[in-house]
Specification:
Number of helices: 5
Strand content: under 5%
């Protein structure tokens, strides 16, 4: 079940969001080539996935911020042109020949990140970070108490 979830289902879900993000970028760009749009999309999606393994809250915030940023750019530059949207939609079938490379990249990133995560769990490296963070919080609270006494 673990392999099915993290090495099959999750990369497919990430890949679907990569497709949606690529589509939005296609609609918002004026002169970028299709390959450039794909590279930008896969880089942003991979960066968010990597961030999710480090701090899940940070990844959520990044994922929330990107659509708002795209919407702001679209509104501020007046990029909603119906003819341009039609032209970009006609380009979509050409994506399917190049898309497999990016799917393999996303799957490899997920495998690599999962292996690193397993190593951290196996050697209890997460707990060490949590203990350090808790110690830092305790020290800060003690310093605040001392400052309040003064």
């Amino acid at each position: 079940m673990y392999i099915l979830e993290y090495l099959v289902i999750l990369p497919i879900v990430v890949f679907l969001w990569f497709g949606v993000f690529t589509f939005f970028l296609m609609l918002l760009t004026k002169s970028l080539e299709l390959q450039t749009i794909l590279v930008i999309s896969v880089t942003i999606v991979a960066a968010i996935r990597m961030t999710a393994y480090y701090k899940e809250e940070l990844a959520r915030d990044l994922a929330k911020l990107i659509p708002l940023t795209l919407l702001t750019v679209a509104i501020s530059q007046g990029l909603f042109d119906f003819q341009k949207v039609i032209n970009q939609i006609q380009i979509i079938p050409t994506l399917f020949s190049d898309i497999w490379t990016y799917l393999i990249f996303i799957v490899l990133i997920e495998i690599f990140l999962r292996i690193i995560d397993i190593i951290f769990v196996a050697f209890d490296l997460y707990k060490e970070e949590e203990v350090k963070a808790e110690d830092t919080i305790k020290e800060e609270k003690e310093e605040e108490k001392q400052v309040d006494k003064i």
